[in-house]
Amino acid sequence: MTDFLQRHIGEHIDLNDEEFHTVSKFFNSVKIRKRQFLIQENQSVDTMYLVKTGLLKSSLIDEIGKEHILQFANENWWISDFASFFKGEKSTVAVEVIEDAELFSITINDLEQLCKVMPKMEHFFRVKSNFGYVALQKRILSLMSHTAKERYDEFCLMYPNIFSRVPKRLIANYLGVTRETLSRLQM
Amino acid sequence: MTDFLQRHIGEHIDLNDEEFHTVSKFFNSVKIRKRQFLIQENQSVDTMYLVKTGLLKSSLIDEIGKEHILQFANENWWISDFASFFKGEKSTVAVEVIEDAELFSITINDLEQLCKVMPKMEHFFRVKSNFGYVALQKRILSLMSHTAKERYDEFCLMYPNIFSRVPKRLIANYLGVTRETLSRLQM
């Protein structure tokens, strides 16, 4: 099980077995079933999660009951309410399990402690955050400047693995289009 | 001039004068006039900028010539094409000066070197990246779930200082509405 974590971290930094042993003690394993909520709205969230297997989504329900999906997370993705996790705010998104999942979790206190005792891990998390930032900028530019059809094609191209596993209504809620529009785009 | 940089970094980490002296050698000062471009599209961008004074924007021009503004940056904001800076891709946004600006610049190589020689700075940049990530997630949720009127009100509330300094057509290009819609929202 820890093989996965070592490989995931090893994509950006080199850790020998002794260092990894230290790192692994900061993480816990979590198993969670389909349709369970990992995070609900209006909570204080002190944990973020790395997906080993399974699929989750974070989303916001607006005042008229419409769901807006901020993120899907499958293998090797991190998920949480990051505004709550990093800034201590109340959560605004809910995180729900779409496929039974095995996760690694780390609390904000353990994250900060880990970065202190092992500067390499601070580097790892900085790189992950930078790459996440870049991905979100692209999503914003896409939301602003691309048509629904272009966003649909991008999604299929970038996330074929998620596309094939997720109900179409959820893809519509991610792209910000109605289910009917999505059907039209698929033709 | 370095007082500003020391204060900016001091918001997240403690640096003594000797440490700050080391840090400051990794930065350069840049002055640039209104209407100049700091970054153009389709370049390799190896520098990011911290705004000491002035105001800039990063934006994308789509195929029909419409501008979409990704970011405004005034005092204490960082700006670049971050996909190019962090991931070595070709730039997709242009960065233009709206008000004469004084900036601090750092190259990607110097950033990585600085983080190596001073782990505290790796912490500083991780925190900045995390906070930036959270801000972008909020912008995505806002683009997806809020009306133009709500986005306009949020912008006035969150960035009163930018609102008062920027031509209204640029605010429309940031909010993703037409100039006519913006006029209606202001009534």
Automatic annotation (TrEMBL), chains A, B:
In terms of SUPFAM superfamilies, this protein maps to: cAMP-binding domain-like
What InterPro entries does its record include?
Answer: cNMP-bd_dom, cNMP-bd_dom_sf, RmlC-like_jellyroll
Q: Where is the Cyclic nucleotide-binding domain?
A: 14-114
Show the PROSITE patterns listed in the entry: CNMP_BINDING_3
Pfam family, any one: cNMP_binding
Top-level taxon in the UniProt lineage: Bacteria
Name of the protein in question: Crp/Fnr family transcriptional regulator
Q: Which organism is it from?
A: Sinomicrobium weinanense
